[in-house]
Amino acid sequence: MRKVYKCLVIGSGAAAYSAADWLYREGVKDIAIVTENRLSGTSRNTGSDKQTYYKLSMDGITPDSPYKMASDMFSGGSCDGEKMYIEAVNSSKCFLRLCNYGVGFPTDKYGCYPGYKTDHDNTLRATSVGPLTSKIMTEKLEKVVIEDNRTLVIDDMLVTEILTYNGRAYGIRVLNLKNEKEENIYAETVICATGAPACIYEDSVYPESQHGMTGVLINAGVRLCNFTQWQYGLASVDFRWNVSGSFMQVVPRFVSVDREGNEYEFLSDYFDDIHTAFSFVFLKGYQWPFSYSRAEESSKIDLAVHNEMLKGRRVYLDYTCNPVGFSFEKLCDEAKSYILNADCLADTPVERLEKLNSKAIDVYLRQGIDLHTDKLRIAVCAQHNNGGVYTDNNFETDIKGLYVIGEAAGTFGLSRPGGSALNDTQIGGLIAAKHIKNKPSIQDENVSFETVDKNIEICPDTDYSYFKKRMSQVASFKRDYEGCVALLTEISAVLESYPQKHRSIADYYRDFDMLISMKALIEAIIAEYPETGSRGGAIFIKDGKTIEENTYYRDYLTVTKGGKAEYVKASPVPCEQKSFEYYLKG
Questions:
Q1: DSSP H helices in 3-49
Q2: How far apart are CA 163 and CA 2, in angstroms?
Q3: How far apart are CA 524 and CA 384, in angstroms?
Q4: How many angstroms separate the CA atoms of 143 and 14, rounded?
Q5: Mean pLDDT score, 242-259
Q6: Cα separation of 206 and 41, whole Å?
Q7: CB 126 within 8 A of CB 285
Q8: Cβ contacts of 497 within 8 Å, gap of 6 or more
Q9: Distance from C-alpha of 405 to C-alpha of 194, rounded to nearest angstrom
């Protein structure tokens, strides 16, 4: 008889290990983790100045509740109130589990967890253990999950297909990267925790080891939710890292360099008052993602950077000296108050950064980049997909037994508080595990799937980087309708006769997944944006004109499949009040 697991978890980041841990804690122990490379992925290989975890307030003073937290997340628009309530209700439970596992979130002497303000939020719910919060989370969860051989980890397996029959998942097909042979792994349920299609943009802050497998899920027949809603922001590109938070709050110098080596401090070309520009640079610290609603405010910095790059120039941050015309006294009151309270007033940006957050400097030093002497090349980069696969409140897709959690799931809407994605990695695993625990076993032994090894001709020159470049040009935070239509035609033509020649068998599947994901995103942009207009993290341009947002659609989720969009009314945040005895009775 073939081996059939109760559950397969795909991925090896914070969401995957969370799911495996919760499954075990819920009594579901016949499970396995399947991963392409245990040490790759976004959770383990990314961060920012002080990478944020967003949770229910536990500072001991700030009034908060799951309803208030859910309402704040819901207020961004185009996300589901019930989902946000689930994220908020389970926040404390999941956060404290991480603390118990050794993730050292700071406390005061009484045991409260102090917080700070983050993107798209005016509360103090944010916390951090420094630049590598998600990495530490992943390592602590991994230690728990694999200790005493509690959970089997099957490494070096590239998932190429979800095995489905009659609308139900039966397991996965994988390419064994050790012998380049295809295998089937059977399971009653599958949890996909593989992040976004990180490979589709040239200007990207995702680690290069991160690919995602959204294309595999699309081919399985899932629908997508809010797939057009991505988060883009300033990041270094020679070493991929967000330049948010402290990196902006110390007000570095923005410089572009042309092909002849001429330098330009270009912000004065985009702002009538340079002191306003410097204040907006500071505000980028916690208004880091590009936002259409701030396109004439702090997000104008992103547009300026992008426009300089369109001139063929490279753009840099320079921390070695102040921008021309910089005056601390002429910054906005919020910036002055923050810098004084943080005791980081100093003569140069790098000196201010040393006083504010020296660990941010250390991140680059470990990569051979010294902010005391080196300029930092930047771009407006893709950083997070707020949308993804459409799931119900149990994180189950339209395919029974197939769950999608973490960034791969379409949980968030037009904007989200910074750090809410890390909270989400922990919630999804808990909710899916509880649902799987109570799911009856249904597997038909007569259903089988043949494996046929691909006959791929190895061709080292196969290269699809052109499409990544075009995605960054016409389908990122500035979206050009005509450009998207032309790019869709090109990608569709490649997919119609997808070549049998490739760099390797593994890259054959990776590139196919990438192209499928690109096609789905462009189709969603073309279907959605003429109706919704510019919104969230993107500006939509048609016939050379910016299309303003139609706010009617903030009350709806955009669900897409096969180039068609439908708008599903978002549920409100639940507000039920029944007697305690009602729940005591069960």
A1: 14-25, 42-45
A2: 15
A3: 17
A4: 12
A5: 97
A6: 9
A7: no
A8: none
A9: 8
Predicted TM-score (pTM) of this structure: 0.96
Measure the CA–CA gap between 342 and 345, rounded to whole angstroms.
Answer: 8
Are 103 and 137 spatial neighbours (Cβ–Cβ below 8 Å)?
yes
Mean pLDDT, the chain, rounded, equals 95
Q: What is the side-by-side strand order in the sheet with 545-546?
A: 478-480, 539-542, 545-546
Q: Which domains does the chain have, with CATH numbers?
A: 233-382 (no CATH), 457-569 (1.20.58)
Pairing between strand 4-10 and 31-34? parallel
Which helix (H) or strand (E) segment holds residue 95: the answer is helix 91-100
124 and 55 Cβ atoms separated by less than 8 Å: no
215 touches 516 (CB < 8 A): yes
| Entry field: residues in the chain | 586
Collapsing DSSP to helix, strand or coil, 375 comes out as coil
DSSP 384: E
Chain segment 536-557, per-residue pLDDT in tens:
999 999 999 999 999 999 999 9
CA 47, CA 39: separation in Å to the nearest integer? 15
Burial 46-79 (b: 16+ CB within 10 A, else e): bbbbbbbbbbbbbbeeeebebbbbbbbbbbbbbb
Query: What gap in Å lies between CA 118 and CA 104, rounded to an integer?
Result: 19
The DSSP 8-state label assigned to residue 499 in this structure reads: -
Q: What digits encode the pLDDT tens for the residues 50-103?
A: 999 999 999 999 999 999 999 999 999 999 999 999 999 999 999 999 999 999
